[in-house]
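pinned: reference chain
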Amino acid sequence: MTRKLLILGLMALAVVAFFVLGLQQYFTLEGIKAEQATLQAWLATYPLLTFAGFFAIYVLVTALSLPAAAVMTVLSGALFGFWWGTVLVSFASVAGATLAMLAARFVLRDSLQKKYGGSLKTINDGFAKEGAFYLFALRLVPVAPFFVVNLMMGLVPIKVRTYWWVSQVGMLPGTAVYVYAGTALASIASLGDLASPPLLAAFAALGFLPLAAKRGLQYIRQSSVT
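pinned: its structure tokens
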């Protein structure tokens, strides 16, 4: 119990410090645009250090469920380009999500299962049989907030390796679209650039992705039944 309280306390302290210190102002589109030149200079001088530092910060932000992951995904495209940005965010986001899931499992799962074990039996049985598909659907079509899915998965019987690879595959399309939006953002110098074809294509992809994912999941579901 002491270790659980310690982990919970440290996570809460980190979240409070994020807001008290005003760090959220750096994780807005205006903030990253203002610092873009500085960050690109760092990247040119210290490429490996900048890449590793960005990766570590992204993992920490995701693990603590801070409201900064989406903006950092866009920023990764502006800084590292589409391919490297997609690779970085894909692995960093899953690493952070896995840490959040494991923290929820360690702190909350046992007590909830003991208290509501009977009520949760149906959910547990369902995830034991088709947990990978449910998680894939939640990752591909984000009907629930990212951090809620991470915490919820810590309370159900899904294997860590299954959680990892399903999240890696399920989040990849959305990650790629946001990173691509970041590559377009890097070329914006004025309000007139907001109508540029690359940025319009990125916005169109963001709107089209959930519909396409939903259709794909329906097809997979029907194929598995038949």
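why pinned: The helical segments are 2-20, 29-45, 47-63, 69-140, 146-153, 160-185, 197-225. Confidence is low (pLDDT under 50) at residues 189-195.
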